[in-house]
Amino acid sequence: MLSEVILLSKSLSSSLEALEWEFPGTICNPLSYAWDNFESFLRLSVKEGQRVLFLGMNPGPYGMMQTGVPFGEIDAVRNYLGISGNIGEPSVNPPEKKIEGMNTRHHEISGRKFWGMAASYGTADAFFSVASVFSFCPLAFIDGRRNITPDELPCTDRRNIDRICQIALSELLDIMKPKKCIALGHYAEKRLLKAGVSDVLYFPHPSPRSPLSMTFWDSGEALETFRRVLDEA
């Protein structure tokens, strides 16, 4: 299983790297310059018998874009996940959202919320014994000071991402065979439904942009719902 996911991730990265883009900003691929950390994350997190698969959208500028780990809040990556690999030099480094790797002083709130929920469940080994975590698209898109989400990209870029990443998602689901999929946000929810997952559970993305989302994560409702899903899966 692990070797299949590693090969799939490398293939996905290569397919996206080969695209020509209309997006005028900077495109960052942590599966390239931060592969060491990402592979360490896969080796830690991909296990037989996991019942739940969490799916996010794409890297945030202060999370996976820095550390190579999905929802890669620096403190969680270091202290909860115990990952501290090398971050290489990206081919292009966005000047206003500079990649500093494991030396970053920025924090990703969504990653802090997500991995905080996981830590409340148990150790990293305990969490990954029942759940896995992936992003639909491994690329980050930066335009000046703005973090651009895939659904904000030019039409041709959106179609290319949907085509390539949707195939990869279907292959991932075939490999992982989760009993339940949890979408972190509506974008991920649509992608899972398009992949043929009939019963997708929606969690609001743990983004600080939404007060309702913060209530869901801060109140313990996310953990409570996750535990209930495990009981039912």
Write the layout of secondary structure elements.
Elements: H1 2-17, E1 26-28, H2 30-33, H3 35-45, E2 52-56, H4 64-67, H5 74-80, H6 109-121, H7 124-128, E3 131-135, E4 140-143, E5 146-148, H8 155-176, E6 180-184, H9 186-194, E7 200-203, H10 211-218, H11 221-232
Parallel strand pairs: 2-3, 2-6, 6-7
Antiparallel strand pairs: 1-4, 4-5
Helix pairs in contact: 1-8
Q: What does this 3D model show about the protein?
A:
This protein has 233 residues and is of the alpha/beta class. The chain has helices spanning 2-17, 30-33, 35-45, 64-67, 74-80, 109-121, 124-128, 155-176, 186-194, 211-218, 221-232; strands at 26-28, 52-56, 131-135, 140-143, 146-148, 180-184, 200-203. The protein has one domain (2-232): Uracil-DNA Glycosylase, subunit E. Helix 9 (186-194) links the parallel strand 6 and strand 7. Helix 1 runs antiparallel to helix 8. The mean pLDDT is 95.
Brief overview, please?
β6 (180-184), α9 (186-194) and β7 (200-203) form a beta-alpha-beta unit.
Highlighted features:
single chain, alpha/beta, Uracil-DNA Glycosylase, subunit E, four-stranded parallel beta sheet, three-stranded antiparallel beta sheet, 7 strands
